[in-house]
Amino acid sequence: MIYCCKEHVDLALRSGGERQGSAPFLKEISTEEILSTTCEYCQNPAVYIVAN
Ligand SMILES: [Zn+2]
């Protein structure tokens, strides 16, 4: 799974698709998770999870 902020959703989707070889699944994370999770590509709080 890749945690990402709004700015890096596209990047995470592309990277997730390459890793898994199938269409990645995008979901919004809950408020509690946002507080403790940072984007994989920058220091912003993560807003989405990309998974398969
Ligand atoms: Zn980011």
Describe the structure.
The chain is of the alpha+beta class and 52 residues long. It has one domain (2-51). It is built from 2 helices and 3 strands, in the order βαβαβ. Strands 1-3-2 form a 3-stranded antiparallel sheet, with helices on one face. The site of zinc ion has 8 residues, from loops.
List the helices and strands and how they pair.
Blueprint: E1 2-4, H1 9-20, E2 25-28, H2 31-36, E3 48-51
Antiparallel strand pairs: 1-3, 2-3
Please tell me the total number of domains.
1
Order of helices and strands: EHEHE
List the strand order in the largest sheet.
1-3-2
Q: Which structural category do the helix and sheet elements fall into?
A: alpha+beta
Helix content: 25-40%
Shape: globular
Number of helices: 2
Average predicted local confidence, pLDDT = 86
| Bound molecule types | zinc ion
Biggest β-sheet strands, sense, barrel: 3 strands, antiparallel
Number of strands: 3
Distance between the termini: 8 Å
Strand content: 15-25%
Please mark out the parts with pLDDT under 50 across 5 or more consecutive residues, or reply none: none
Radius of gyration: 10 Å
Give a brief rundown of this model.
With 52 residues, the chain is an alpha+beta fold.
Key traits:
binds zinc ion; alpha+beta; globular; 52 residues; 3 strands
